[in-house]
Amino acid sequence: MKNLVHPKNFVIFPKFFSISNLERPQLKDINLKEVQPKVFNVELNREKQRNTFTREFWLELKSAINYLSNYSGCRTIVLSAAGKSFTAGIDLKEAFSQIVGLSSDESIDTARKSRLLMELIGSIQDCYSILEKCPKPVICAIHSHCIGAGINMICAADIRYASKDTVFSIKEVDVGMAADIGALNRIQKIVGNDSLTRELSYTARDFNVDEALNYGLISKIFENKEDCFDGAVETARLIAEKSPIGVQGTKMALNHARNHTIEESLEFIRLLNASQLLTEDIRVAAESVLTKKKCDFKDV
């Protein structure tokens, strides 16, 4: 009889604990595959629609990342896209039809309409926030167009690379709204130029990879889409070879420090490492230095 309490079968879900077999999600518009040992590629694949986001597409992304977050065989994630565009943003046809339909419904008062919109916006925010909450580092391999919702998405990732043909835009003001699913909330934590952030957000103008690199939004530029993906996979491979206890603890500490004082974040890492320093990974790493052999860390 299968041992259901084996650590590999013990999956932690929000708000409660469950012993469960982790099932790979059924995905229609996202490709999910292992491209290197412990490195998984999440590929957006609404190619004909330029990878524009519908509510169903957002939920698929959330499902894929949630699966990899809990799958111990994954240590790093590369987020890329099929087709000519990384993403052209929100599917405006769906978005406008939902908003117009709700606003014109006279059977619902303004307060209740607002609550429905709050619920909708919150559910979409969660679909990008899961990239940030995922314990495994997420690397974006961006190409061609990264517009509107695309900026919101990449700001929740850990590392951002782009091909030299990439055009970025914080596009929301061009459709009469403020960005509400993460860009305005995270980008100031990523870059150090408040003036340029406001210029780009108020004007919705395009900016290229050179400006994005100087701005601090991305960290590397590649010749083309293929090289960008390969570069992201190589970085992911290097990370995947490290101790998952060390890497995941580092992500937790960096995320916490970004939103807290130095004193608070020092207390956080003190409490975290009080348990995590007991890991056998430290012994494995020390033995590797002495024997000059490659480390073989257990999955988490």
From TrEMBL:
UniProt pathway: Lipid metabolism; fatty acid beta-oxidation
GO cellular component: mitochondrion; peroxisome
Subcellular location: Peroxisome
Swiss-Prot/TrEMBL catalytic activity: (3E,5Z,8Z,11Z,14Z)-eicosapentaenoyl-CoA = (2E,4E,8Z,11Z,14Z)-eicosapentaenoyl-CoA; (3E,5Z)-octadienoyl-CoA = (2E,4E)-octadienoyl-CoA
Keywords, in A-Z order: Acetylation, Fatty acid metabolism, Isomerase, Lipid metabolism, Peroxisome
Single biological process term from Gene Ontology: fatty acid beta-oxidation
GO molecular function, a single term: delta(3,5)-delta(2,4)-dienoyl-CoA isomerase activity
Coiled-coil residue spans: none
Role, per record: Isomerization of 3-trans,5-cis-dienoyl-CoA to 2-trans,4-trans-dienoyl-CoA.
Family according to the record: Belongs to the enoyl-CoA hydratase/isomerase family.
Protein name as annotated: Delta(3,5)-Delta(2,4)-dienoyl-CoA isomerase, mitochondrial
Organism from which the protein derives: Strongyloides venezuelensis
